[in-house]
Design goal:
It contains 18 helices and 21 strands. The protein is an alpha/beta fold and 541 residues long. It binds zinc ion.
Length: 541
């Protein structure tokens, strides 16, 4: 049996220089050749091989989604979709329809609603109870940093007017009565809604959610992922999938262990120790724990991102992790050789994250470290310079800059800060590595529309909208490289993932349209025809 395959008659973007190759040779799970067809035949001479004529199709490295949440993505795909519900009436209609479609459902779960769809931007339990009063309803905000619930859900979670706000979270309340009004932010969602729902989810359901995520990723060209909030339940599902696959998975997962904030240093450090142990015990080419994740602040839409100056309504948000708790955790993870990923959307949060990284450098001395900051939707020019100097990876998500989801975001800031939103090219100009991802399910996961936004700053949802600060658009080759080669760098796997060259893992995708020839608008209509991971065809259209 031959294990070598020649893929010929292709236009191959390697993410390793500007020239397109025309053939590649897969030998087992790796690439034996990438270049001309004549040279490929020389490599193959004297032995059997299979041959695939790609008919002039476009080939590129498999996408590496630098920031995602796999299990939650699969789960979200099973929820009532609300991202394109533009009004409260439309949201209520979809909830009613969900009940009508499954009258016996014990609870209704929805996802993706936008603050701009709600009158006054403040959702309440009554708004849901007006259509579904008889069972719990949980609706994730589009950014997954808030959950909107009805009265039955508040009761199911055991939240009443005496329930305190957890550290780093807010339970919205009636100013007169103190009763919860149906909106939970940040750790209030993590500590009440998520565990309640997790306790109601079976292993089989979670396995099905993970399988759904794998399937959707492979069919859209993603061959590797960086999972950004791993917990015990998600890890258990991934380990079951690994076992079911005989030590392999449909695609590769590199995961960051979520560290929940506590004012007890020992509790925080115990979570770092758990991540360090997992980084040693879960370390295969398909699944590995690479570091920790810290959520240092919230999001602009909910005014929970920590800003240097207040929001347009005069409010501001506290950091979820004060430096006195953040710094020891980052230093401990750094000392263990773990990668640290810090979610920082507000310009204050990224400053504090950089302080923590500098503190770790000082405490632990020189070492091979590859830390990262997630999102940085608003960031000062000084922080960008500092990030580049410290060698921190900028992990950003073009889908979050989609003009269709900017209205509330811009209104919350309301001043000149909106003119420096999502400044991707400022990072690359400063010499930082930029890794692109989707943050699914807070945004759509398919990488080709994500690359359309990256290269145009226009909306993949409503392409007729004006571009969002086109000065920050990336050229196509750069965008594709940030979503493959640089995303691989962000999880320390640039030696084997993210570009097509001899010796690299044979992870690549074939598209039906060459975006360099057809133009970037084709990214909205082209599709993946073949996805190969580790030399195996994992998806075929
Ligand atoms: Zn995320």
């Amino acid at each position: 049996m031959t294990t070598r395959t020649l893929y010929r008659n292709a236009r191959i973007f390697t993410a390793d220089g500007p020239d397109l190759a025309e053939a590649l040779v897969v030998d087992g799970e790796r690439l034996a050749h990438v270049g001309s067809e004549a040279a490929a035949l020389e490599v193959l001479s004297g032995s059997d091989f299979a041959e695939v004529d790609l008919g002039g199709a476009f080939v590129m490295p498999g996408f590496v989604d630098a920031h995602t949440h796999l299990v939650m993505m699969g789960e979200t795909m099973q929820k009532v979709a609300l991202r394109d519900a533009g009004t409260l009436a439309e949201i209520q209609l979809r909830l009613k329809e969900a009940v009508a479609a499954d009258p016996g459902a014990p609870r209704i779960l929805g996802s993706g609603w936008l603050f701009s769809a709600i009158p006054g931007g403040t959702p309440t339990a009554e708004m849901i109870d007006a259509v579904v009063p008889d069972r719990p309803v949980y609706l994730d905000a589009n950014d997954l940093h808030s959950v909107w619930v009805n009265k039955a859900a508040l009761a199911e979670m055991g939240i009443d007017k005496d329930t305190p706000n957890p550290l780093g979270g807010i339970i919205e309340r009636d100013p007169e009565t103190g009763e919860a009004t149906g909106l939970l932010h940040e750790t209030a969602m993590h500590q009440y809604a998520w565990p309640t729902l997790a306790s109601l989810t079976s292993d089989a359901e979670r396995d099905a959610q993970l399988a759904t995520a794998f399937e959707h990723y492979l069919s859209t060209g993603v061959t590797s992922t960086i999972d950004m909030a791993l917990g015990e339940d998600e890890l258990a599902a991934m380990l079951r999938a690994l076992e079911a696959g005989g030590g392999t998975l449909p695609l590769r997962i590199n995961a960051h262990w979520l560290v929940a904030p506590s004012e007890d240093h020992e509790k925080n450090l115990a979570q770092v120790a758990r991540a360090a142990a997992l980084s040693r015990s879960v370390n295969t080419p398909w699944l590995r724990v690479v570091g920790i994740k810290i959520i240092a602040d919230g999001v602009i839409d909910g005014c929970t991102a920590a800003m240097k100056e207040p929001y347009s309504d005069g409010s501001n948000a506290d950091l979820i992790w004060a430096p006195e708790y953040l710094n020891p955790v980052v230093a401990a993870a750094d000392a263990e050789g773990l990668q640290v990923a810090i979610h920082a959307i507000g310009d204050l949060a990224s400053e504090v994250a950089l302080d923590a990284f500098e503190h770790a450098n000082a405490v632990n001395g020189p070492r091979d470290r590859r830390h990262r900051i997630e999102h940085m939707e608003t960031v000062t020019p000084e922080s960008i310079e500092r990030l580049a100097r410290l060698g921190i990876v900028a992990s950003m998500q073009p889908v979050h800059a989609d003009p269709a989801v900017q209205e509330n975001w811009r209104a919350m800031l309301g001043d000149e800060r909106v003119e420096r939103a999502y400044p991707w090219t400022e990072f690359t100009d400063a010499g930082a590595v930029l890794a692109l991802g989707s943050d699914a399910p807070t945004a759509p996961h398919p990488p080709l529309p994500n690359m359309y936004i990256a290269t145009t700053r226009k909306s993949a949802l409503e392409p007729s909208l004006p571009a969002n600060l086109p000065k920050y658009a990336l050229d196509l080759a750069s965008a594709l490289s940030h979503a493959t080669r640089d995303a691989a760098f962000s999880c320390r796997r640039e030696h084997e993932l993210g570009l097509l060259a001899p010796g690299m893992l044979a992870d690549f995708v074939v598209l039906d349209t060459d975006p360099f020839a057809a133009g970037v608008d084709s990214l909205l209509s082209s599709s993946v025809v073949l996805t190969v991971v580790g030399g195996d065809v994992k998806f075929r259209k």
